[in-house]
Amino acid sequence: MWILYDFKLSESFQVLLELHNQSAPTNSLKRVTRASGDLLRPREAIFMQMCLPGSPVLYYGDEIGMQGGADPDNRRTLNWNIATWDIPTLLLTRKLITLRKRHHALREGSFDPYWVHHSGRVLVFAREHPQGNLLAVSSNGWQSLSTSIPVDRYYADGAVLVDLLTGDSITVANGHLDMSGSNQITAHQGRLFKEL
User: Fold this and answer.
1) Residue where one domain finishes, among candidates 59, 82, 102
2) Per the confidence metrics, is the pTM higher than 0.85?
């Protein structure tokens, strides 16, 4: 799948590739530490991990933005001081776990990585299942992007798609989702759409 990208993978995707579908090695740096303290990239990796096929693995502390260096610092005890937790990452992780439990497409669906915006560093893939399809949009870019995503392969004109993470909805027009204005794709953001 990653052959679709003709650019050097960012740190967040490298972390994702290292941790997806396997236990995090005990000598691995924590996600936030590897991302140099940038909290958006670990959130992007968690989004991808919960939306891609396979069994997602979270190393303890990733869900609260806990840092940790090389072994043995990556195995420090869990930080129980809630005031220091990255609450947006925790809430996103909880929501994605709930969505994964609720939607068969995320657990058992086929995987179709069908559209890439190379310069904007956006990957769009579908998770198909008889009980309902989902469309994931993942930005690996450093800037917001306004674009139009072809979706006629899965949705007819007039179909209303709701983002399961934000509740925002977009109507399919001319076989595309207009991702501009308030719907633009922001840096290191994941969007997960379902037809209403």
Assistant:
1) 102
2) no
